[in-house]
């Protein structure tokens, strides 16, 4: 499991898990899994970044660069729909 700052950032914004789920268009279960260090797809990361008010270029502030797949594999999976 990879570390990320989703929970810390969400709490610093005084945002509930349900609110982040609603703003990102994701389920609360997905938010819980990501906050617990589970891996997620590139699209999920993008939705979370946007909901927290970050740009995609700020990804390193929320998700560690070594988390899950490399950026190259994420791009390949995104093109395959995975």
Structure description:
- By secondary structure, the chain is mainly α.
- The protein has one domain: 434 Repressor (Amino-terminal Domain).
- 57% of the residues lie in helices and 0% in strands.
- It is built from six helices and no strands.
- It starts with 5 loop residues before the first helix and ends with a helix.
SSE order and pairing:
Elements: H1 6-12, H2 17-24, H3 28-35, H4 42-51, H5 59-62, H6 71-80
Summarize this entry quickly.
The chain is built from six helices and no strands. With 82 residues, the chain is mostly helical. The relative contact order is 0.20.
The quaternary organization reads as: single chain
Tally the helices.
Answer: 6
Q: What is the CA-atom radius of gyration, in angstroms?
A: 12 Å
In CATH, what is the homologous superfamily? lambda repressor-like DNA-binding domains
The proportion of residues in beta strands is: under 5%
> What is the β-strand count?
0
Q: What portion of residues is helical?
A: 55-70%
Number of domains: 1
State the main characteristics.
82 residues, 434 Repressor (Amino-terminal Domain), 0% strand, mainly alpha
